[in-house]
Design a protein that fits this description.
By secondary structure, the protein is an all-alpha fold. The protein has 2 domains: 12-44; 45-97, Arc Repressor Mutant, subunit A (Orthogonal Bundle). The chain contains 5 helices and no strands. The chain has helices at 13-21, 24-39, 47-66, 71-78, 82-91. Helix 3 (47-66) packs across helix 4 and helix 4 packs across helix 5. It starts with 12 loop residues before the first helix and ends in a 6-residue tail after the last helix.
Length: 97
């Protein structure tokens, strides 16, 4: 069975229109602006690491669900080496090393 790369034209119309109406980057920007506004006068430090921690785990979980737990397929989807993915999954406690 030959696999083809997912392109915008191969995404179902409903999903494509949702992605077009609110791109991921816009969702992230709004979330960060809301977080900063809520922090008010409190010192904000380590924001980069916080964002990566908050985004990486749900990203991995969603991709693993989509790939039905197939680490090779998930790594390919993420553009990561399979061993790197395993290391990151273990760091998040998603799998045991």
């Amino acid at each position: 069975m030959k696999r083809t790369a997912l392109t915008t034209s191969s995404i179902p119309a409903a999903a494509n229109s949702l992605a077009a109406s609110q791109p991921l980057a816009e969702c992230v920007r709004l979330a960060i602006e809301t977080y900063l506004a809520q922090m008010g006068d409190y010192a904000v430090e380590g924001l980069y690491d916080l964002v990566i921690r908050e985004v990486e785990r749900p990203l991995f979980e969603a991709v693993l669900r989509h790939s039905r737990g197939n680490l090779t397929q998930a790594a390919r989807m993420l553009g990561l080496n399979r061993n790197t993915l395993r290391k990151r999954l273990a760091a998040h406690g998603i799998i045991r090393e």
